[in-house]
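re: that chain from earlier
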Amino acid sequence: MSELTFSRVHRASPELLFDCMTRPEHLTHFWGPAGTTTPLDGIVVELRPGGRFETTMVGADGSAYTMRAVYAEIDRPRRLVWIEADTRMRTEVTFADLGDGRTEVTTHQTDVPEAYRSAEARAGFATSLDRFDAYLASL
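^ sequence. v structure.
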């Protein structure tokens, strides 16, 4: 099975981080790799098991990529799981309170398509984590 795991420690509470990952007004500021935008009107969050999670990222050249998923599990502020409709890739995000004002966020993906496993794709995901850090610093 093809899997990827990304982990990052943020200076924020699990509650704030969970809310940033599940509210369009936050997601629009950081969702996607550097060089993309995710307009607010391109984000759908139906935060319940079976609810839709959709984002449309727009590249610098105007190309658009829509991710369509369904939430499988929601356990605020500890865990969030969704499954993408087209690839069946499963993404599980966990929020571990480190007890000192920091939270470790781990993203574990299974059934990852080959295109997402390339060094370039993994580096792009890392830039989205950098964008998330920058957004959190602005709050």
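The chain has a mean pLDDT of 96.
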